[in-house]
Amino acid sequence: MSASAHSLSRPASDASVKNDLVKIVGVHKYFGDHHVLNGIDMTVKQGEVAVLIGPSGSGKSTLLRCINHLETISAGRIRVNDELIGYKEKDGKLHELHLKDIARQRRNIGMVFQRFNLFGHKTVLENIIEAPVQVKGQDRVPAKRRAQELLDRVGLAHRASYYPAQLSGGQQQRVAIARALAMDPELMLFDEPTSALDPELVGDVLDVMKDLAKSGMTMIVVTHEIGFAREVGDTLTFMDGGVVIESGNPREVIATPQHERTKGFLSKVL
Ligand code: ADP
Ligand code: MG
Q1: Which residue among 138, 166, 172, 264 is buried most deeply as judged by most CB within 10 Å?
Q2: Which residues contact 82 (CB under 8 A, 6 or more apart)?
Q3: Ligand 1 touching residue 62 (CB < 6 A)
Q4: Residue limits of the ABC transporter domain (predicted)?
């Protein structure tokens, strides 16, 4: 494990080193003959929060899924920490990695979806220790101790023995975040984490994400929460039709979008 395994306690100053953590170059993705990603370039530096917005169907989820190789790519390269994701390159050609190498790469990348995807028959604590114990082979006692710390961090220390159905959607989503963090990922991907929540529950989840960002975690966040983008994002990228239309400082993109399509989209979500 690299030093970044301790990213939760990493002082913010370390994040200012600012290496490129995620490098996406010329990525294309087809589903059949549907060209869903059409040459995506995107870089996310260590410790940065990259917010991704765009209309439904623009390819945001597909791009996130490509970053942890839940989808294959049709062309281009995705690197995390300089390691090619999902493939090895030989004579300029990509060959898909073995499952165990794909699994190793995925362990380093946490993902939180719109739907919480918790195991319904397991308690909150069991949900969180599942992967550390089963996948990483951690002992249950330290795994539980860590899970309890993570629950405390997401404001749910008192819910360890509850079942998901006994929690609100916002609480379930915070458990899902804690569960992803239990694997000590170097990168966190969020795909519309608050879209399925009742409005009054959105703030608590965004607060947890804001804390995580402050701790120095590198994050790519697909969201329509423009306030979050403005306040927490280091970059804001607008996608439409499988291409990046524009990207930049969130305040600038929001205040003075350069493209008509960005203006049109922002006028609908602001
Ligand atoms: P977004 O997250 O921006 O709403 P998606 O990445 O989910 O967009 O989808 C982009 C396009 O790709 C859509 O037209 C969608 O229907 C299509 N698509 C997504 N996943 C699949 C799939 N597994 N098979 C075929 N088409 C898909
Ligand atoms: Mg989506």
Answers
A1: 172
A2: 23
A3: yes
A4: 22-266
